[in-house]
Specification:
about 45% helix; Rossmann fold; alpha/beta; two-stranded antiparallel ribbon; about 400 residues; 2 domains; single chain
Length: about 400
Amino acid sequence: MKVLFYALFLFPAFCFGQSVNEPDKKVTIGTVHTIPSAHLNEDREVWVYVPASAGAGDKTRYPVMYLLDGKDFFHLMTGMVAELSSLGRMPKMIVVGILNKDRGSDLTPTRSMFSRDGMVDPDFKNSGQGEKLLAFLQKELMPYMESRYNTAPYRMFVGHSLGGLTVLHALVNHPSLFHSYVAIDPSVWWDNHLIMKQAQKALTQNDYAGKSLYYAASNTMEKGMDTVRVIKDTVYANGNVRNNFQFREILRKSRNLPWAWKFYPEENHSSVPLLAQYDALRFLFKTYELNKDLDDPTLTPDYLTHHYRTVSALLQYPVLPPQGTVNSLGYISMENKQYDKAHRFFKLNVDLYPASSNAHDSLGDYYVERGDKKKAIEAFRKALALKEVPQTRKKLQLLEARK
């Protein structure tokens, strides 16, 4: 695997006191993988980002985002994922950026020679290979990722323009592949608006429980046109906006599909991904955030347990409260002399993470605070049986010396 890096050279090296002989330092973002594909009949390059916490020994499983036009959006999306997850507003995720060799082939689900004014667009001479791309994703790329990384079952699909068309095609025709979908200014005009016709039938008849969609529309209207008159307008240049509003009406009739549709009046087709990607992540994971400060007195073990049941339902696999968060809540409660609450947090951590030496050590600290030497010794011995930690050993020896 190659290392994908992004070096920043904002100032000459001597500004930082760097020796001219010192090698440049790199900021590593992800890795480059080249995957042989029988479905595409070629080798396909993908860029993979993993959370910083996914180091050696980490057994956490991470949901996976599959990002179309990866070369264009990899840096933008991975930065957002890293920042929002660090704030607790979404889960940490693996991001897989998919690169194209022939975009007009990969991202068009049907064969159609797009033309305007009698001129055939050469970008679409090989159009209609979108099903092969989805077969590559399902039968080659996903198994590849799942065999090499700690992946969780939850999968997201993100695309812009023709990529947005591919996302909608997957939602309508292959809904089992992903759990959430982000279509940014999708090219729903393709092949005489075929995806709109398909969606009108599928979204109203099929069961989309457990799926969700964020749909973004940019402003590509001619000056002087507005969002009311554009619906009945027939000018070609206003077609994208008109199509997006028409697709919104299809979504309004959908069957149990959670969705959000947003028009960005200040953004054009090229600029809209920046804001839309952020808004999509906030919408799709709006119930993920804890929404309480750790020192909030209403943040109880029961509240925390209920919240992570909600998170588990959102991601459709079991998600436990983070061990570090529960541990911190225990110590905060103990410092506030809320001893019953502190005990419940420490006991919850031991129940959730029975193989954690630190969880048992913290429970031992609680028993020391409460003057229960016998239970403190039991907790420290259990912690040491799991992992030898000098600080825990010292605490145990001090207690045993007082017998």
